Amino acid sequence: MARPWTLLFFFLFHFLYFRSSFSLLPPFLKCDTLISKPTTHSSNQLPDFPCKPPYQASFPFCDTSLPTSTRAHSLVSLLTLSEKISLLSNNASGIPRLGIPPYQWWSESLHGIAPNGPGVSFNGSIPSATSFPQIIVQAASFNRSLWSSIASAIAVEARAMYNVGQAGLTFWAPNINIFRDPRWGRGQETPGEDPMLTSAFAIEYVRALQGGNWESSEEIRNDKLMVSACCKHYIAYDLENWHEFARYNFNAVVSQQDLEDTYQPPFRSCIQQGKASCLMCSYNAVNGVPACASEDLLRIVRKTWGFQGYITSDCDAVATVYEYQKYANSAEDAVADVLKAGVDINCGTYMVRKTESAIKQGKVKEKDIDGALFNLFSVQLRLGLYDGDPRRGMFGNLGPLDVCTPEHKTLALEAARQGIVLLKNDKKFLPLNKNAAETLAVIGPMAFTTKLGGLYSGTPCRSETLHEELKQYVKKISYAPGCIDVSCLTEAAFDDAIRTAKEADYVVIFAGIDTTQEAEDLDRVSLLLPGKQASLVSSVAAASKCPVILVLTGGGPLDVSFAEANPRVASILWVGYPGEAGGEALAEIIFGEANPAGRLPMTWYPESFTRVPMTDMRMRADPTRDYPGRTYRFYTGSIIYGFGHGLSYSTFSYKFLSAPSKIGLSRTFKDGSIKGSLRQEGKQVYSVDYIPVDGMQNCISLRFSVQVSVMNFGKLDGSHVVMLFSRGLEGLKGSPEIKLIGFDRLHTVPFKSTGTSFLVDPCEHLSVVDEYGKRILPLGNHILRVGDDIDHIVSIEID
Ligand SMILES: *[C@@H]1O[C@H](CO)[C@@H](O)[C@H](O)[C@H]1NC(C)=O
Ligand SMILES: *[C@@H]1O[C@H](CO)[C@@H](O)[C@H](O)[C@H]1NC(C)=O
Ligand SMILES: *[C@@H]1O[C@H](CO)[C@@H](O)[C@H](O)[C@H]1NC(C)=O
Q1: How close is the Cα of 419 to the center of ligand 3, in Å?
Q2: What is the domain-level CATH number for residue 179?
Q3: How many domains does the chain have?
Q4: Residue numbers of the chain with a pLDDT score lower than 50
Q5: pLDDT for the residue 532
Q6: pLDDT tens-digit profile of 397-421?
Q7: Which atom of ligand 3 lies at the shortest distance from residue 720's CA?
Q8: CA of residue 386 to ligand 1 center, whole Å
Q9: Which terminal CB of the chain, N or C, has fewer other CB atoms within 10 Å?
Q10: Residue 705 sits in which domain range?
């Protein structure tokens, strides 16, 4: 077993070791990188399925009148040991004597069905699927019902593809790791840096994907699943590679405090409220123990959060326990460690190959495998996989006509409209008047991209370049990329771009990054625009007739301070990866057919942030060591754009309509003795009194409602995101400066006020986490805030 002090040695050693011996290892699947597709799918091929006649009559596991657990136990009891072992892989073998075909557990669906796992193929009667905006863009909408509608649409397309043999039923999404560092290549796949926002997204996504919104949802509520969603990657995974550290060997050193108030909340919500049926453990170690081998971390999931489902390792993350992390002393120990910790299935072949010898060596018992198989079969049974012909099941009527439907395509457009963020708009330069613009120049390398979905994209229903729809709004359009590609290494084509820009009334410059710059196994080293892109923007802006519009692509934050400060750059829009209809939504926003309301779900840091070691997991600033902290909750340095930043063509003002000014704890504690013990627990540390939250008897009765109204002072209707924050108490060390406790996206009309209300749970929203990872509720004044400076004080008192 590795100890923290030995890990440093292992990192250095194994980095060199692996460089030279990589090819000697078994083929190493990188989860989520494209792998060769099985070619077994053909047009209109139906999936093979268990419990076909004559089997359905002979086996209890095929008997739909029995409870799921009885059926699962029965199936386990019918298997030989070698059959059991052959099922411990994402590519699970068939058991022909029981009429069970092979099953591929690994399908992907992050923002639309995607072929990144071998379970999905676009080679068949369904050649494409709706490609919604990447998650970071969806998050920017701050609209729960949008997230839910999208996940429901994906579930329909998933079932349709399953029915024609082009997808499985178990999907490994959503990715809900915290976007902790702006360089992270996969930050784009997540809902951003805030645990509350990420939790809210996870709940909507998982509920809807698993079938929560299906019309006849009676059966779904009874534990059936439309498809299975997977909360990943548990936990503290948000680094691909930095210096000698890679996700495969990284040991994330995480304090109990950060675990409790940053890293765990999205997973807790995904499981407790989302009721996800799968959890994926990550490659990295946490405090010296690989996540997939951590009994402590996985026990919380099953025992404390009540998880019902299967736990899969990330791809070959069982092999890494031994081969990269050197936590286990042998392959067999690695298998034993992860099974004991609670992993049920291995993405990859490691467990299939090593479990038999682990049993022979006495390290694994057959009953450990039985437990894993029980969890796996239970999920398959809930999916209806052993209910016979899927075409006769409740989703059997879904097929090619249910994919890329007009409704889903419209939803993809709506999602892009809602997620695009207006970062700068000097003197209300935007929107452009669609009748006034004669000529428009489209400049910049990103204008010509058709890869609008970012990582985990499938074949979209429609494919067009990002600038294409601008044509609809002007008489004449001209183009000049300025840079040959994203990396923009030379200025050779600048003159052409400058000439083209000079001749046009308006200029839109498309700059930014794509998945050649930020991806799986690829973190950025700089937050600046690649190569000479910034110089292209400045040169074109200086030469054009009017100030220019800058459109930024990519999921990670960019240091565009040069453009923010340049008066020749009138407006800046961030489109991220806006999905298949992104170009249309962008054109609508530029020409005022849609009013932007997206808000950044992550802080945009300056380039100087890159001096911070990516490996430092601490959220809180440490001024004594020149550590600035991370995310808007704790970061103390300067910013380019803050969390929640996003402009509209309207302006808005806020008012608290109603909120209590005092919450008396005695209301909850009628019994005098409890009140007495509460008084004792009103401990003094720091400079305020507090009560431990786990010592509170009844948090629910303390909940209160806060009513807020918003007034639209613009000429246009527009959606507006209201965010409710709570502000930390003075003198409470380690409490965030400010934190999001509620949000709502509202429809507003000019010169009318629109109201919304938030339910505040003091134990959850006003508590802070102490250095031991315990939640405490400070007594005294708490500040609630909407907008930049509208505050309301509520005092928590024991009376
Ligand atoms: C698509 O499926 C057909 C029929 O199985 C097969 O012949 C063909 O090679 C496949 N094409 C690709 C690109 O996989
Ligand atoms: C999956 O396993 C089967 C054996 O059960 C094997 O024939 C097949 O090649 C495997 N497929 C992949 C993609 O590894
Ligand atoms: C939220 O999204 C839904 C689904 O697309 C949409 O109907 C609704 O108008 C959106 N809400 C606001 C206020 O934009």
Answers
A1: 11
A2: 3.20.20.300
A3: 3
A4: 1-43, 667-677
A5: 98
A6: 999 999 999 999 999 999 999 999 9
A7: 13
A8: 28
A9: C
A10: 652-798
How many angstroms separate the alpha carbon of residue 613 from the centre of ligand 2?
Answer: 41
Q: What is the 3-state secondary structure (H, E, C) of 314-382?
A: CCCHHHHHHHCCCCCCCHHHHHHHHHHHCCCEECCCHHHHHHHHHHHCCCCCHHHHHHHHHHHHHHHHH
Atom 11, ligand 2: residue with shortest CA distance? 91
**Residue 146 Cα, ligand 3 centroid: separation in angstroms?**
6
Give residue ranges with CB within 6 A of ligand 3: 143, 145-146, 149, 414, 418, 719, 745-747
Residue 476 sits in the same domain as residue 542? yes
Write out pLDDT tens, residues 732-788. 778 898 999 999 999 999 999 999 999 999 999 999 999 899 999 998 999 999 998
In a shared domain, residues 219 and 133: yes
Residue 464 lies in a domain: yes
User: Residues 179, 244: one domain?
Assistant: yes
Residue among 276, 343, 263 nearest 305 (CA):
276
Does residue 565 sit in the same domain as residue 491? yes
Q: Whose CA is nearest to atom 1 of ligand 2?
A: 91
Tell me if 38 CB under 6 Å of ligand 2.
Answer: yes
Around ligand 1, the residues with Cβ closer than 6 Å are 37, 39, 41-42, 123
Residue whose CA is closest, atom 10 of ligand 2?
A: 91
- Do residues 280 and 313 lie in contact, with contact meaning Cβ atoms separated by under 8 Å? yes
Q: Which pLDDT score, from 0 to 100, does residue 193 have? A: 98
Q: Are residues 221 and 292 in the same domain?
A: yes
Give the position, in ligand 2's atom list, of the atom nearest the Cα of 93.
5
Q: Could you tell me if the CB of 102 is within 6 A of ligand 2?
A: yes
Q: Ligand 1, atom 10: nearest CA belongs to which residue?
A: 39
Identify whether 457 is part of a domain. Answer: yes
Q: Is 40 in the pocket of ligand 2 (CB under 6 A)?
A: no
Domain end call among 387, 402, 417: 402
Residue 349 Cα to ligand 1 midpoint, Å, equals 25
Q: Out of 368, 402, 436, pick the residue that ends a domain.
A: 402
Residue 37: half-sphere exposure toward Cβ, Cα within 13 Å: 17
Q: CB within 8 A of 557, min separation 6: which ones?
A: 182, 527, 602, 603, 604, 605, 640, 641
Residue among 335, 301, 300, 297 at smallest CA distance from 316: 335
Structure tokens given for 444 = 């910049």
Residues annotated as part of the active site: 314
Q: Which residue puts its alpha carbon closest to atom 8 of ligand 1?
A: 39
Residue bearing the CA closest to ligand 1, atom 5: 42
pLDDT at residue number 38: 40
CA distance 669 to 288: 42
Q: What is the pTM of this model?
A: 0.93
CATH number, domain with residue 583: 3.40.50.1700
**Model pLDDT, residue 689:** 83
How far is residue 334's CA from residue 285's CA, in Å, rounded to a whole number?
A: 13
Tokens 């207006």 sit at which residue? 422
Q: What is the DSSP letter of 384?
A: T
Question: Given this model, what pLDDT does residue 26 score?
Answer: 36
Residue 757 domain flag: yes
Q: Which residue is it, tokens 């505050």? A: 791
699 and 761 assigned to the same domain: yes
CB-based contacts of 448, cutoff 8 Å, min separation 6: 465, 466, 467, 481
| Closest CA relative to residue 708, chosen from 670, 752, 754 | 754
Residue 604 sits in the same domain as residue 694: no
